[in-house]
Amino acid sequence: RHTRFRNVTGVQTCALPISVALGLAASPAFAHAALESTDPAAGATAPTSPAAIELRFSESVSVGLGGVRVIAAGGETVRTGRPATVPDQPEVVRTSLPKLAKGTYVVTWRVVSDDSHPVRGAFTFSVVRPTEGSGAARIADDYLSGGTTNGAVDVSYAIVRSLVFAAMALVIGILVGATLVWRGAFAHRRVRRVLWCSWGVLLIATLLAFMLQGPYGGGLALGDAFRPSVWSDVWGTRLGIVLLARAVLVLALLPVLLTIDRAPRPAWSRLLGLVLIVGIAATPALGGHASVGDQNALAVVVDMIHVLAMGVWLGGLTLLVLLTARTTAEEATD
Questions:
Q1: Confidence (pTM)
Q2: To the nearest 5 percent, what fractions of the chain are helix, strand and coil?
Q3: Residue 13: is its pLDDT beyond 60?
Q4: Coil, strand, or helix at residue 262?
């Protein structure tokens, strides 16, 4: 009994400095995508009607859940082409324009940055000459004051993300702790129950995160999370693919969980479980900023190890709590 306490505590003691060291060694986190330049330039007066609107950002972006709108000073929306990123330039968004009449126009844009967060903005430009008494500035201000996302979507998205990381930490930590440290952990019903619940929460929360990414990234209502057309847009993004890949990896843990109470536990089950949790731990990095940049491979590995260390730490604490509760109950009956 005391050896089990020392083993689990030893793993936690190793995991904490590893996590801290990786955090100190990691480069500073990137901010959300920022608009670096536009063509036509903000506030500029073009001598002729431009053929397209071009937005250049500080990093690659996704425009499938967002969009670009052009609005005349009088409030009429201009029919434009479908906005898309430029081939081999994922940081540049372009949308074609029809021939514009003289006057001032407002360009509103909304994109999703590499960390899955939506960013948006607005600017004005004129063709030949500005419109006198233009209401373009008011249109831009109204757009920007509307908020980035729906309030209900914000709250739901935050709750689901918290559930994902909490459940991921428990699944990783309990499987690692019970596989490498406390071999007899799965003989106890309480440990198996916590693991199964964490697995179920991780699977459901991951699927909910996929459904909510559309409303969150596109500024839609909460009810739009149930629209297949929105799911299709999410599927076309890198984060959408990563979320579905995580769901597949979590489902692949099912045969591992079905054999955890066997004595002895099959070797293939232990090995498969460890491989799958490494893959699951890599998904936050693959769906975020770590997967882009000059040293993306190193960043993904560091982020993955950080998630694994976090999981081992929190999962180890959970095993300690469960073991302590069982030990206390045993001593009470002695």
A1: 0.74
A2: 55, 20, 25
A3: no
A4: coil
